Amino acid sequence: MVFSRLSAIITVALGALKLADAATVGAVARAHDACTSLVPIVQLIQTNLFDGGECGEEAHSALRLAFHDAIGFSVNGGKGGGADGSILIFNKTEGLFHANNGIDEITARQFPVFQETGLSAGDFVHLAAAIGTSNCPGAPSLKFFFGRPPPVAAAPDLTVPEPTDSVTAIIARFADAGFSVPEIVTLLSSHTIAAADKVDPTIPGTPFDSTVGTFDTQVFLEVLLKGTLFPGNGSQPGEVLSPLHGEMRLQSDFLIARGPPVSGKKTSAVVTATFKEVMAKMQLLGQDTDNLVDCSSIVPTSAPFDGPIKFPASFSQADVEIACTESPFPSLSTVAGPAPTVAPV
Ligand code: CA
Predict the structure, then answer these.
(1) In this structure, are residues 275 and 219 in contact, taking their beta carbons and an 8 Å threshold?
(2) Catalytic residue among 32, 60, 68, 191, which?
(3) What global pTM score does this model have?
(4) CB 225 within 8 A of CB 200
(5) pLDDT tens digits along 278-287
Protein backbone atom coordinates (compact mmCIF):
# COMPACT_ATOMS: atom_id res chain seq x y z
CA MET A 1 0.00 0.00 0.00
CA VAL A 2 2.73 2.38 1.05
CA PHE A 3 4.76 1.40 -2.03
CA SER A 4 1.82 1.90 -4.36
CA ARG A 5 1.21 5.37 -2.88
CA LEU A 6 4.87 6.18 -3.24
CA SER A 7 4.90 5.03 -6.85
CA ALA A 8 1.77 7.08 -7.47
CA ILE A 9 3.49 10.14 -6.03
CA ILE A 10 6.54 9.46 -8.19
CA THR A 11 4.32 8.99 -11.25
CA VAL A 12 2.56 12.29 -10.53
CA ALA A 13 5.90 13.96 -9.97
CA LEU A 14 7.29 12.55 -13.20
CA GLY A 15 4.16 13.69 -15.00
CA ALA A 16 4.65 17.21 -13.62
CA LEU A 17 8.27 17.05 -14.71
CA LYS A 18 7.20 16.08 -18.22
CA LEU A 19 4.72 18.98 -18.25
CA ALA A 20 7.46 21.34 -17.07
CA ASP A 21 9.76 20.02 -19.80
CA ALA A 22 7.03 20.49 -22.37
CA ALA A 23 6.46 24.04 -21.14
CA THR A 24 10.19 24.75 -21.34
CA VAL A 25 10.43 23.28 -24.82
CA GLY A 26 7.38 25.32 -25.86
CA ALA A 27 8.87 28.51 -24.45
CA VAL A 28 12.18 27.87 -26.20
CA ALA A 29 10.35 27.21 -29.47
CA ARG A 30 8.31 30.39 -29.12
CA ALA A 31 11.48 32.37 -28.34
CA HIS A 32 13.16 30.81 -31.37
CA ASP A 33 10.19 31.77 -33.56
CA ALA A 34 10.21 35.33 -32.16
CA CYS A 35 13.91 35.72 -32.91
CA THR A 36 13.56 34.13 -36.35
CA SER A 37 10.89 36.70 -37.19
CA LEU A 38 13.55 39.39 -36.69
CA VAL A 39 15.94 38.04 -39.34
CA PRO A 40 14.27 39.87 -42.27
CA ILE A 41 14.03 42.99 -40.09
CA VAL A 42 17.79 42.89 -39.50
CA GLN A 43 18.26 42.75 -43.27
CA LEU A 44 15.82 45.62 -43.78
CA ILE A 45 17.69 47.79 -41.25
CA GLN A 46 21.04 46.95 -42.84
CA THR A 47 19.76 47.88 -46.29
CA ASN A 48 17.68 50.96 -45.46
CA LEU A 49 19.69 52.48 -42.60
CA PHE A 50 23.29 51.34 -42.99
CA ASP A 51 23.69 51.21 -46.80
CA GLY A 52 24.00 47.44 -46.73
CA GLY A 53 26.42 47.15 -43.80
CA GLU A 54 28.62 50.23 -43.50
CA CYS A 55 30.43 51.44 -40.37
CA GLY A 56 29.54 54.98 -41.40
CA GLU A 57 27.88 57.98 -39.83
CA GLU A 58 24.54 56.19 -39.34
CA ALA A 59 26.27 53.36 -37.46
CA HIS A 60 28.10 55.78 -35.17
CA SER A 61 24.92 57.77 -34.64
CA ALA A 62 22.82 54.68 -33.94
CA LEU A 63 25.13 53.73 -31.06
CA ARG A 64 25.07 57.31 -29.74
CA LEU A 65 21.27 57.35 -29.97
CA ALA A 66 20.99 54.11 -27.99
CA PHE A 67 23.13 55.61 -25.24
CA HIS A 68 21.26 58.93 -25.12
CA ASP A 69 17.98 56.99 -25.00
CA ALA A 70 19.00 54.53 -22.31
CA ILE A 71 20.75 56.90 -19.91
CA GLY A 72 17.44 58.75 -19.36
CA PHE A 73 16.99 56.66 -16.25
CA SER A 74 17.71 56.66 -12.55
CA VAL A 75 18.02 53.72 -10.18
CA ASN A 76 16.32 56.05 -7.69
CA GLY A 77 13.32 56.54 -10.00
CA GLY A 78 11.71 59.68 -11.31
CA LYS A 79 13.86 60.22 -14.40
CA GLY A 80 12.56 58.27 -17.41
CA GLY A 81 11.98 54.86 -18.94
CA GLY A 82 15.60 54.12 -19.86
CA ALA A 83 16.17 51.98 -22.93
CA ASP A 84 12.63 52.44 -24.15
CA GLY A 85 12.99 54.31 -27.45
CA SER A 86 11.60 57.51 -25.91
CA ILE A 87 14.26 59.48 -27.77
CA LEU A 88 12.74 58.34 -31.07
CA ILE A 89 9.04 58.70 -30.21
CA PHE A 90 9.36 61.87 -28.15
CA ASN A 91 12.09 63.36 -30.36
CA LYS A 92 10.36 66.75 -30.37
CA THR A 93 10.96 66.92 -26.61
CA GLU A 94 14.25 65.08 -26.06
CA GLY A 95 15.73 66.56 -29.24
CA LEU A 96 15.58 70.02 -27.63
CA PHE A 97 17.90 69.04 -24.77
CA HIS A 98 21.36 70.58 -25.15
CA ALA A 99 23.11 67.22 -24.84
CA ASN A 100 21.03 65.91 -27.75
CA ASN A 101 22.12 68.70 -30.12
CA GLY A 102 22.33 67.20 -33.61
CA ILE A 103 20.54 63.98 -32.69
CA ASP A 104 17.58 65.08 -34.85
CA GLU A 105 19.55 63.93 -37.92
CA ILE A 106 19.63 60.28 -36.82
CA THR A 107 16.08 60.27 -35.41
CA ALA A 108 14.79 61.68 -38.72
CA ARG A 109 16.85 59.07 -40.59
CA GLN A 110 15.65 56.20 -38.39
CA PHE A 111 11.96 57.09 -38.06
CA PRO A 112 10.68 55.86 -41.46
CA VAL A 113 12.75 52.66 -41.14
CA PHE A 114 11.38 52.16 -37.63
CA GLN A 115 7.82 52.45 -38.96
CA GLU A 116 8.56 49.86 -41.64
CA THR A 117 9.77 47.27 -39.12
CA GLY A 118 6.73 47.26 -36.83
CA LEU A 119 9.03 46.97 -33.80
CA SER A 120 8.51 48.95 -30.61
CA ALA A 121 10.64 52.09 -30.56
CA GLY A 122 12.86 50.68 -27.80
CA ASP A 123 13.47 47.44 -29.67
CA PHE A 124 14.19 49.38 -32.85
CA VAL A 125 16.66 51.87 -31.33
CA HIS A 126 18.59 49.16 -29.50
CA LEU A 127 18.54 46.63 -32.34
CA ALA A 128 19.71 49.31 -34.79
CA ALA A 129 22.58 50.16 -32.43
CA ALA A 130 23.62 46.51 -32.24
CA ILE A 131 23.48 46.08 -36.02
CA GLY A 132 25.27 49.36 -36.76
CA THR A 133 28.05 48.57 -34.27
CA SER A 134 28.51 45.11 -35.81
CA ASN A 135 29.34 46.82 -39.11
CA CYS A 136 32.55 48.18 -37.55
CA PRO A 137 35.52 45.75 -37.72
CA GLY A 138 36.64 44.66 -34.26
CA ALA A 139 33.33 45.45 -32.55
CA PRO A 140 31.67 42.96 -30.25
CA SER A 141 28.30 41.49 -31.25
CA LEU A 142 26.10 43.42 -28.84
CA LYS A 143 23.33 41.53 -27.11
CA PHE A 144 19.73 42.16 -28.14
CA PHE A 145 16.69 41.48 -26.02
CA PHE A 146 13.34 41.60 -27.81
CA GLY A 147 9.96 42.75 -26.53
CA ARG A 148 10.27 46.22 -24.99
CA PRO A 149 6.87 47.87 -24.53
CA PRO A 150 6.30 51.29 -26.14
CA PRO A 151 7.75 54.25 -24.20
CA VAL A 152 5.24 56.11 -22.07
CA ALA A 153 6.92 59.51 -21.77
CA ALA A 154 9.94 61.55 -22.75
CA ALA A 155 12.93 61.36 -20.44
CA PRO A 156 13.56 64.59 -18.53
CA ASP A 157 16.43 66.91 -19.42
CA LEU A 158 19.93 66.67 -17.89
CA THR A 159 20.29 62.89 -17.90
CA VAL A 160 22.88 62.77 -20.70
CA PRO A 161 26.43 63.68 -19.55
CA GLU A 162 28.08 66.45 -21.57
CA PRO A 163 31.75 67.04 -22.45
CA THR A 164 31.64 70.31 -20.50
CA ASP A 165 30.62 68.49 -17.29
CA SER A 166 33.13 67.96 -14.50
CA VAL A 167 34.38 64.45 -13.91
CA THR A 168 32.60 64.52 -10.55
CA ALA A 169 29.30 65.39 -12.23
CA ILE A 170 29.77 62.71 -14.90
CA ILE A 171 30.55 60.03 -12.31
CA ALA A 172 27.53 61.12 -10.23
CA ARG A 173 25.15 60.96 -13.23
CA PHE A 174 26.37 57.51 -14.24
CA ALA A 175 26.15 56.30 -10.65
CA ASP A 176 22.55 57.53 -10.55
CA ALA A 177 21.88 55.32 -13.59
CA GLY A 178 23.68 52.36 -11.94
CA PHE A 179 27.15 52.50 -13.50
CA SER A 180 30.56 52.37 -11.84
CA VAL A 181 33.69 54.29 -12.84
CA PRO A 182 35.27 51.28 -14.64
CA GLU A 183 31.99 50.88 -16.53
CA ILE A 184 32.13 54.56 -17.59
CA VAL A 185 35.64 54.02 -18.97
CA THR A 186 34.44 50.91 -20.80
CA LEU A 187 31.56 52.86 -22.35
CA LEU A 188 34.02 55.53 -23.51
CA SER A 189 35.56 52.93 -25.82
CA SER A 190 32.56 53.75 -28.05
CA HIS A 191 34.46 56.94 -28.90
CA THR A 192 36.70 54.73 -31.04
CA ILE A 193 33.91 54.80 -33.65
CA ALA A 194 32.52 58.26 -32.92
CA ALA A 195 32.75 61.79 -34.23
CA ALA A 196 31.55 65.22 -33.08
CA ASP A 197 29.18 67.25 -35.26
CA LYS A 198 28.26 70.11 -32.96
CA VAL A 199 31.13 70.65 -30.52
CA ASP A 200 32.75 72.81 -33.21
CA PRO A 201 30.02 73.38 -35.80
CA THR A 202 32.60 74.55 -38.37
CA ILE A 203 34.02 70.99 -38.61
CA PRO A 204 31.11 68.50 -38.43
CA GLY A 205 31.99 64.80 -38.39
CA THR A 206 35.35 65.26 -36.65
CA PRO A 207 36.45 61.86 -35.20
CA PHE A 208 37.82 61.27 -31.70
CA ASP A 209 40.63 59.03 -32.98
CA SER A 210 42.48 58.29 -36.20
CA THR A 211 40.70 54.95 -36.82
CA VAL A 212 37.02 55.92 -36.66
CA GLY A 213 36.06 53.04 -38.95
CA THR A 214 37.44 50.39 -36.59
CA PHE A 215 36.34 49.37 -33.10
CA ASP A 216 39.76 49.22 -31.45
CA THR A 217 41.54 50.79 -28.46
CA GLN A 218 43.14 53.58 -30.52
CA VAL A 219 41.10 56.27 -28.73
CA PHE A 220 42.59 55.20 -25.38
CA LEU A 221 46.11 55.67 -26.82
CA GLU A 222 45.46 58.97 -28.58
CA VAL A 223 43.75 60.54 -25.55
CA LEU A 224 47.06 60.10 -23.72
CA LEU A 225 49.10 62.01 -26.33
CA LYS A 226 50.06 65.60 -25.61
CA GLY A 227 47.56 68.02 -27.18
CA THR A 228 48.98 70.79 -29.36
CA LEU A 229 46.22 72.15 -31.61
CA PHE A 230 42.53 72.77 -32.19
CA PRO A 231 41.25 71.07 -35.34
CA GLY A 232 38.72 73.79 -36.20
CA ASN A 233 37.69 77.24 -35.15
CA GLY A 234 39.69 77.47 -31.91
CA SER A 235 38.66 76.29 -28.49
CA GLN A 236 34.96 75.45 -28.12
CA PRO A 237 33.04 74.60 -24.93
CA GLY A 238 33.81 70.96 -24.09
CA GLU A 239 36.89 70.86 -26.36
CA VAL A 240 40.58 70.76 -25.39
CA LEU A 241 43.83 70.63 -27.37
CA SER A 242 44.13 67.66 -29.73
CA PRO A 243 47.32 65.88 -30.84
CA LEU A 244 46.20 65.50 -34.48
CA HIS A 245 44.81 67.72 -37.21
CA GLY A 246 41.26 66.65 -37.96
CA GLU A 247 40.78 65.03 -34.54
CA MET A 248 38.48 66.29 -31.77
CA ARG A 249 39.42 65.81 -28.13
CA LEU A 250 36.62 66.19 -25.63
CA GLN A 251 37.36 67.86 -22.32
CA SER A 252 35.58 65.02 -20.49
CA ASP A 253 37.67 62.30 -22.19
CA PHE A 254 40.84 64.29 -21.45
CA LEU A 255 39.96 64.73 -17.76
CA ILE A 256 38.80 61.14 -17.20
CA ALA A 257 42.02 59.83 -18.83
CA ARG A 258 44.06 61.99 -16.44
CA GLY A 259 41.95 61.32 -13.36
CA PRO A 260 42.56 58.66 -10.74
CA PRO A 261 43.75 55.46 -12.45
CA VAL A 262 40.97 52.97 -13.06
CA SER A 263 43.00 50.09 -14.41
CA GLY A 264 46.13 49.47 -16.39
CA LYS A 265 46.50 48.67 -20.03
CA LYS A 266 43.39 47.68 -21.92
CA THR A 267 43.86 45.19 -24.71
CA SER A 268 41.37 45.13 -27.55
CA ALA A 269 40.07 41.76 -26.39
CA VAL A 270 39.38 43.01 -22.86
CA VAL A 271 37.70 46.20 -24.07
CA THR A 272 35.56 44.34 -26.60
CA ALA A 273 34.34 41.77 -24.08
CA THR A 274 33.59 44.27 -21.33
CA PHE A 275 31.95 46.74 -23.73
CA LYS A 276 29.54 43.99 -24.76
CA GLU A 277 28.52 43.38 -21.15
CA VAL A 278 28.27 47.05 -20.11
CA MET A 279 26.25 47.93 -23.22
CA ALA A 280 23.91 45.00 -22.49
CA LYS A 281 23.29 46.53 -19.07
CA MET A 282 22.81 49.97 -20.66
CA GLN A 283 20.39 48.67 -23.29
CA LEU A 284 18.22 47.03 -20.62
CA LEU A 285 17.90 50.03 -18.29
CA GLY A 286 14.32 50.36 -17.11
CA GLN A 287 13.29 47.09 -18.76
CA ASP A 288 11.92 43.93 -17.10
CA THR A 289 14.05 41.17 -18.60
CA ASP A 290 11.48 38.55 -17.53
CA ASN A 291 9.28 39.90 -20.30
CA LEU A 292 12.01 39.99 -22.95
CA VAL A 293 13.42 37.27 -25.20
CA ASP A 294 17.18 36.98 -25.69
CA CYS A 295 17.56 37.29 -29.47
CA SER A 296 21.28 38.09 -29.39
CA SER A 297 21.83 35.32 -31.94
CA ILE A 298 20.35 37.48 -34.72
CA VAL A 299 22.92 40.27 -34.23
CA PRO A 300 25.53 40.09 -37.02
CA THR A 301 29.17 39.33 -36.27
CA SER A 302 31.72 42.02 -37.12
CA ALA A 303 34.83 41.54 -39.20
CA PRO A 304 37.92 41.01 -37.02
CA PHE A 305 40.33 43.84 -36.17
CA ASP A 306 43.84 43.04 -37.33
CA GLY A 307 45.69 44.68 -34.45
CA PRO A 308 47.68 45.68 -32.58
CA ILE A 309 47.08 49.42 -32.48
CA LYS A 310 49.95 51.77 -33.43
CA PHE A 311 51.03 55.30 -32.69
CA PRO A 312 49.79 57.65 -35.43
CA ALA A 313 52.55 58.50 -37.93
CA SER A 314 55.31 60.70 -36.44
CA PHE A 315 54.21 59.94 -32.83
CA SER A 316 56.00 57.77 -30.30
CA GLN A 317 56.24 56.98 -26.61
CA ALA A 318 57.85 60.43 -26.16
CA ASP A 319 54.49 62.05 -26.98
CA VAL A 320 52.62 60.14 -24.26
CA GLU A 321 51.65 62.72 -21.66
CA ILE A 322 50.51 60.33 -18.94
CA ALA A 323 50.56 56.58 -18.52
CA CYS A 324 49.37 54.01 -16.02
CA THR A 325 51.83 53.49 -13.21
CA GLU A 326 50.60 50.03 -12.26
CA SER A 327 51.72 48.29 -15.46
CA PRO A 328 54.39 49.02 -18.09
CA PHE A 329 53.21 50.95 -21.14
CA PRO A 330 52.80 48.52 -24.04
CA SER A 331 55.48 48.61 -26.69
CA LEU A 332 53.76 49.96 -29.82
CA SER A 333 55.10 50.63 -33.28
CA THR A 334 54.39 53.81 -35.28
CA VAL A 335 52.48 54.09 -38.55
CA ALA A 336 54.91 55.06 -41.33
CA GLY A 337 54.85 58.46 -42.97
CA PRO A 338 54.20 62.10 -41.99
CA ALA A 339 51.75 63.14 -39.24
CA PRO A 340 48.23 62.46 -40.53
CA THR A 341 45.24 64.75 -40.85
CA VAL A 342 42.26 62.69 -39.74
CA ALA A 343 39.51 62.82 -42.35
CA PRO A 344 35.97 63.75 -41.28
CA VAL A 345 33.24 61.11 -41.45
CA1 CA B 1 14.74 56.61 -23.14
Answers:
(1) no
(2) 68
(3) 0.89
(4) no
(5) 999 999 999 9
